[in-house]
Amino acid sequence: GCTLSSAVAAFMARGMQLENAVRQAKHYVQESLQAGARFTMGKGHGPLHHAYRYWNASEMSIREDSGASGRSSNR
């Protein structure tokens, strides 16, 4: 819901009419869901990959083990 409504607003801010903005936003959300499906987090369907259009997967390595994020915590 939040991503869809934000995408509609963004497309309308770029000058699109409502009907076309909704169509483009729906396509964006569908593509984001599909691109995010390869990431396994939790027990749901996976996250949206908001930056899928700009992502070069060959440059990044995805860790398979969810227990080690590789991040350091500053506590």
From TrEMBL:
This is Pyridoxamine kinase/Phosphomethylpyrimidine kinase domain-containing protein. One of its GO terms (molecular function) is hydroxymethylpyrimidine kinase activity. Residues 1-49 form the Pyridoxamine kinase/Phosphomethylpyrimidine kinase domain. One of its GO terms (biological process) is thiamine biosynthetic process. GO terms for cellular component: cytosol. Gene3D superfamilies: 3.40.1190.20. PANTHER family: HYDROXYMETHYLPYRIMIDINE_PHOSPHOMETHYLPYRIMIDINE KINASE THI20-RELATED, PHOSPHOMETHYLPYRIMIDINE KINASE.
